[in-house]
Amino acid sequence: MEWRKVIFIGILAMAWTAILSAAAFPSVAPVKPTIPHILAILSYDPTFPTSHDILDGVESVFPAANNDVYVLYMNSKRQPGPEHTESFATLVTWELTHSPRPDIILTFDDNAQRFVIDRRRQLFAGIPVVFAGVNDRDYVQSLQDQADLTGV
Fold first, then answer.
1. What is the pTM of this model?
2. Edge-to-edge strands of the sheet including 129-132?
């Protein structure tokens, strides 16, 4: 289990480096530095046993002092089904229209990853996605040709 955490933190570090590189080498006139906006989507709810560990890992790579990390909980483990997923999609749509555009999306567990991929064109177009904790290996293999997508 510990090796997965190391790989996950490594992937997050690579994503962070990509964000910083884009900010460090602007292609036009200098732009006022902004902090990265990071959207984390968890399949769980805040009381799920691993939720705090996941967010501790995110905080270790993206400290709150230098990043705007916004967390959305799908709660799909307690509320499975299409009605709940569509309600969550409505919430995400509202959040995306009333918050800064994310520079990167982090997904945790299969349900969160499927949610983002299924709605990538309409809600998350052009935003890199880093996933972790996806258990369905065949599903992960089917995503290998997607641009701006990486994970474990």
1. 0.76
2. 68-73, 37-42, 104-108, 129-132, 149-151
Query: Residue 14 and residue 68: Cα distance in Å, rounded?
Result: 17
The residue among 64, 40, 12, 33 whose CA lies nearest residue 113 is: 40
CB atoms within 10 A of CB 2: 6
Beta strands in 33-138 (DSSP E): 37-42, 68-73, 104-108, 129-132
3-class DSSP assignment, residue 107: strand
Per-residue confidence (pLDDT) for residue 108, from 0 to 100: 94
pLDDT digits 0-9 by tens, 24-56: 555 555 565 688 899 999 998 899 988 889 999
10 Å Cβ neighbour count for 149? Answer: 19
Look up residue 3 and give its amino acid: W
